[in-house]
Amino acid sequence: MGKIIKGRVWKYGDDINTDVIFPGKYTYSIMTPEEMAKHALEDLDPDFAKKVQPGDVIVAGKNFGMGSSREQAAICLVAAGVGAVIAKSFARIFYRNAINNGLLAIVSPEASDALEAGDEVEIDVEKGEIRSSKGVFKFPPFPKSVMEIFEDGGLIPHTIKKLREAKS
């Protein structure tokens, strides 16, 4: 994943729920991350899945990922190439699902207010900085253990890596 993420902003509002991130109607019929990515945010922004580029960043308001505990909401964003989600706040279960699936979930009310759709951003994960033409916005760096999960692509690949290291 790298410690620098560069992309353009996709801006959304408050209370974006998991049914909007990944429509519930697909929960039991679509099983691969690649298929899930094709339906990311389709009810909110029908162009998103067709136009999102690797490294692009979702910027939202408060309570991003509220609703069901559907893990596909984080999986589809990762599979679509989203580099990070910046929000004023996250729903607790979505936040954990994001970490488990290697999706950076950054709390930054200042960046959420300042950034607009189409802005170019650069996120320095190690320094805890979001940089854009609108300014530099600080966020608390992630703990080392969480960074390792992100760098390994999620909790399952991270756990497998640690198990292999322990055996050698």
Search tags:
168 residues, 35% helix, 7-stranded mixed beta sheet, Aconitase, domain 4, alpha/beta, 7 strands, 8 helices
Give an account of the 3D structure.
- With 168 residues, the protein is an alpha/beta fold.
- It has a single domain (4-167), classed as Aconitase, domain 4, CATH 3.20.19.10.
- Helices cover 35% and strands 19% of the residues.
- It has eight helices and seven strands.
- It has helices spanning 18-21, 33-37, 48-51, 72-80, 92-100, 109-114, 144-151, 155-167; strands at residues 4-11, 57-59, 84-87, 104-107, 120-124, 129-132, 135-138.
- Strands 4-3-2-1-5-6-7 form a seven-stranded mixed sheet.
Note the gap between the termini. Answer: 25 Å
Give me the strand/helix succession.
EHHHEHEHEHEEEHH
Any idea what the radius of gyration is?
Answer: 15 Å
SS summary, helix count:
8
Q: Which fold name fills CATH's third level, the topology?
A: Aconitase, domain 4
Q: How does the helix and strand content classify structurally?
A: alpha/beta
Question: What does the overall shape look like?
Answer: globular
Task: Please indicate the count of domains.
Answer: 1
Number of strands: 7
What is the typical, i.e. mean, pLDDT?
A: 95
What is the CATH architecture assignment? Alpha-Beta Barrel
Largest sheet: 7 strands, mixed
Bin the strand percentage: 15-25%
> What is the CATH superfamily classification?
Aconitase, domain 4
Uncertain stretches: none
Helical residue percent band: 25-40%
